Amino acid sequence: MATANLDQLAGRRVFSKEGQCIGHLEEIVAEADGNDLVVTEYHVGIFAVFERLSASSIGTALLDLVRLRHRKGIYRIPWDKLDISDPAAPVLRCSEQELATMQSSVRVER
């Protein structure tokens, strides 16, 4: 199992195999596994940062104001579909067609 400094990854541009930027890595989701944290998925895209805002009523109001709440633009990339061997330039391990299936809209729970 490899380890990585997450602070080196956050905010980095993520590239497709073809070298296209698909967005910035905005959130890293991890679960506890004993004394370790294990990354389960990465949230990439312009609206991933808004996803965190939507958890609060102020964030929800802001998203409604600018009509972004139900917009697509977040990629939920499983941990094994992103090559982070070079933290300065993470690259997808899947095709852009497969990436399209990972796109979702901002979820809001009230």
The helix/strand series, from N terminus to C terminus, equals EEEHHEEEHE
Total of DSSP H or I helical runs spanning 4+ residues = 3
Question: What sort of overall outline do the alpha carbons produce when their principal axes are compared?
Answer: globular
Most strands sheet? 5 strands, antiparallel
Lateral arrangement of strands in the main beta sheet: 1-2-3-4-7
Strand composition percent: 35-45%
Topology diagram in text:
Elements: E1 13-15, E2 21-33, E3 36-44, H1 48-53, H2 57-65, E4 72-78, E5 82-83, E6 91-92, H3 96-100, E7 103-105
Antiparallel strand pairs: 1-2, 2-3, 3-4, 4-7, 5-6
Explain what the structure shows.
It is a single chain. 20% of the residues are buried. The chain has 110 residues and is α+β, with helices and mostly antiparallel strands. It has 3 helices and 7 strands, in the order βββααβββαβ.
How is this structure best summarized?
This protein is of the alpha+beta class and 110 residues long.
List keywords for this structure.
18% helix, 3 helices, five-stranded antiparallel beta sheet, two-stranded antiparallel sheet
